[in-house]
Structures are given as C-alpha cells and as structure tokens.
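Extended Data, panel c. Modelled sequence:
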Amino acid sequence: MLGYRYRASRVNCVRTSAHKWTREEIRDRVLTRCRRSILLSIAASACALEVAHMRVLLAEMGLPQSEPTIVYVDNQGAVELSRDRKSCHRSRHVDRRYFKVRELAAEGVLRVDPIDTLRNSSDLLTKPLEVTKFNAHRARLLNAAAPAGVQAKG
C-alpha cells in the first residue's frame, strides 16, 4: 500500500517502573495534521483501556486509586481530541470505541496531559536519538541508574 507510515509507541508505568511498552506502525494513504491527531488519539484510547484494567487490578489487590491516572501524549491535537466531547466534521467518521479515552476522562479515571519531547521516553521506540537522550530514556524505562553525566528527566 502506498502512503505514509507513522510509528506510535507507548510506555505504561506504575509509579516509576515501566511494566509494558509497545510500538505499532500505522499505515495511511493521507496523513494530514488532523488525521495524525486522530491516529494518536486512537493509540491513546488503547492505552486508556490498559490504564482502566490496571486500576481495577490495583483495586482488587487493596490499592484503590483515588486520583485520576495521568496519560501523557506528545501530540497537542490528540490531547484536544481527548478533552473535547463533541465531534467535528473531520473526526466524525471515527468509530466511537476509538475515543474511549474521552469517556474515561469524563468519568475521572484518567487525565490526558501533553508531554514535552525531552521527557517522552516512548520516543526511544520510534525515533533515532542522540546518545545522551537514548541513555537517559533507556535508564528510565529499565528503572536503572542513568550513566554518569546523564540526567533522566521526569
């Protein structure tokens, strides 16, 4: 299929420990700015379902969560799509199940916030990075000490 390939990745962390990371490749014929935001919002919805499942597991173990879980997204359009409960003419065709993140945010289960690309450790799975950024993100994902002279942010 001709078109654009876009890589979406996510890292699920409990406190500071990463317990799951995934990377998926999305192929699309037309990748406009709005379409890319919709694709990332779909990826955020998949993450939101895992967050809801993890919250149920923690509650069953006697660790109920009183505050909403924060889901960080590095695309401002995807953040706005997750917060805005009405549909626009460009996102109206998207299946409702892909916007589960909206419902969970309205229920107070999670909150979607933007993240700066310098703090986004899931970039390690999708982009070529400088050595210092790579080492910092790797240390954060593996819950290890960063090499000397490297500061892991976030």
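The first strand starts at residue 4 and ends at 14. This feature is highlighted in the accompanying rendering.
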